[in-house]
């Protein structure tokens, strides 16, 4: 039989996810005795329902009642919170608020469109309503195809900005639908424009949702995260439907009240979307985040953490950068003679060639066949450093001297400045890259916008010998 000492020494332990582990000891009769076995949570065989423990191992609202524990299993990904990114919960909460507001606004807009089509009007023509509906749908389909061709490759790079853009555009589309019945002569044109905007919203919103799901899924569980996101949205839309059934009879006979409700709901929708997007903490680098980090690094010698940089990232102005940076352009855009090619190649052996137009503040980069993520990141950093020479503000000594040389006396040739910044980056970039990795940024992949052109060129003469 087991003695008293053996009762105190655990034979083994187990834990569910990140919850506090429980120990197993040998009982006096030789059976296994688990700590906390009398708790109904463990006896039920469902650790997720153990009272007094939440996902982090402590007390929490999800574990307070069996109903909340069941709701968690239905609406949240398996293994939450360890199976998703740390920004998952705040983002999803604000996303639910915006979806609820959008559901109510959509009900008001749908009612207005149906009134404009003649629902409830004995004089309305079915064929006219059908023609309007078909024209509206065909306009939207064409818009969806054109927008996906025009901006599809850019949606990954600026997922937050395009997500916010899509929701604001959706509000504009619904506003057009509400206003359409007030001007019957323009009704068909108005609802067609509105549906065009909604189809663009569908492309931008769907694509950015996929990009954000990829960011949030941390255990190769994109399907689960996406499915639970769909469940959350369905629950919110059901709640919105019930509230709409109560709201619509109250505002249907008063256009001004309906418009007032729509304005309030739109304000809530935009605010909740802003908070949702601002809650995201993306650890991959796009151009705006890289520019923000590089500027801070050049001024203070340190790299911001992802949480700090994401809070500072512009959400409205990211579409119009001050520097035009093009990565992966065709080589014939950069050079038109042997001399120009030699000037770009001379003095370095990096797998990219860079051309800088100072007057237009435009940087074009041709990439080699062997250029990987780190080379692309250095090329983008190089272009942003050249852009920083055009701006005021503190810079490291070497770059400050280059800026003075570029501004004083006869203007230096662009290719000379490019070559000199290559030499500065030989020292600067490894420190910057190490700082990025130490701060928690993912440098093995990026969300920089890169075209598909690749090229080969002769090595620099002074490098051939080595």
From TrEMBL:
GO cellular component term of the entry, any: membrane
Pfam family name, one: UVB_sens_prot
Protein name, entry field: UPF0420 protein C16orf58-like
Domain Root UVB sensitive protein C-terminal: 302-457
Chain ranges of the Protein root UVB sensitive/RUS domain: 69-300
Assigned keywords, A-Z: Membrane, Transmembrane, Transmembrane helix
Location in the cell: Membrane
Record family assignment: Belongs to the RUS1 family.
Organism: Cricetulus griseus (Chinese hamster)
């Amino acid at each position: 039989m087991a003695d008293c000492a053996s009762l105190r020494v655990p034979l083994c332990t187990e834990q569910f996810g990140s919850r506090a582990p429980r120990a197993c000891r040998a009982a006096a009769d030789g059976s296994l005795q688990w700590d906390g076995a009398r708790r109904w949570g463990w006896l039920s065989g469902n650790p997720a329902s153990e009272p007094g423990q939440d996902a982090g191992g402590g007390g929490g609202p999800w574990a307070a009642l069996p109903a909340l524990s069941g709701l968690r299993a239905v609406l949240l990904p398996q293994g939450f919170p360890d199976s998703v990114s740390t920004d998952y919960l705040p983002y999803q909460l604000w996303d639910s608020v915006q979806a609820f507001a959008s559901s109510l606004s959509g009900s008001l807009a749908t009612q207005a469109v149906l009134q404009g089509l003649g629902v409830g009007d004995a004089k309305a023509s079915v064929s006219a309503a059908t023609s309007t509906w078909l024209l509206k749908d065909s306009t939207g389909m064409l818009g969806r195809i054109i927008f996906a061709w025009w901006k599809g490759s850019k949606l990954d790079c600026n997922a937050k900005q395009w997500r916010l853009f899509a929701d604001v555009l959706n509000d504009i589309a619904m506003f057009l639908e509400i206003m359409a019945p007030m001007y019957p002569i323009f009704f068909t044109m108005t609802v067609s424009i509105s549906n065009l905007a909604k189809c663009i919203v569908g492309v931008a919103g769907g694509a950015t949702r996929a990009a954000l799901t990829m960011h949030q899924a941390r255990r190769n569980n994109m399907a689960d995260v996406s499915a639970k996101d769909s469940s959350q949205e369905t629950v919110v839309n059901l709640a919105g439907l019930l509230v709409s059934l109560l709201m619509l009879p109250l505002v249907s006979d008063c256009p001004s009240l309906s418009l007032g409700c729509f304005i309030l709901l739109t304000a809530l929708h935009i605010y909740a979307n802003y908070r949702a997007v601002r809650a995201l903490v993306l650890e991959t680098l796009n151009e705006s985040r890289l520019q923000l980090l590089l500027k801070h690094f050049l001024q203070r010698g340190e790299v911001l953490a992802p949480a700090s940089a994401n809070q500072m990232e512009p959400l409205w102005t990211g579409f119009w950068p001050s520097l035009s940076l093009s990565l992966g352009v065709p080589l014939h855009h950069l050079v038109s003679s042997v001399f120009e090619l030699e000037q770009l190649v001379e003095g370095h052996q990096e797998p990219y060639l860079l051309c800088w137009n100072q007057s237009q503040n435009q940087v074009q980069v041709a990439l080699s066949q062997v250029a990987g993520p780190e080379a692309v990141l250095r090329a983008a950093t190089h272009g942003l450093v050249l852009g920083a020479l055009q701006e005021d503000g503190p810079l490291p000594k070497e770059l400050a001297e280059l800026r003075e040389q570029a501004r004083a006396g006869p203007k230096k040739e662009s290719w000379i400045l490019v070559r000199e910044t290559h030499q500065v980056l030989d020292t600067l970039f490894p420190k910057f890259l190490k700082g990025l990795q130490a701060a928690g940024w993912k440098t093995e992949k990026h969300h920089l916008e890169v075209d598909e052109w690749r090229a080969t060129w002769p090595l620099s003469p002074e490098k051939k010998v080595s």
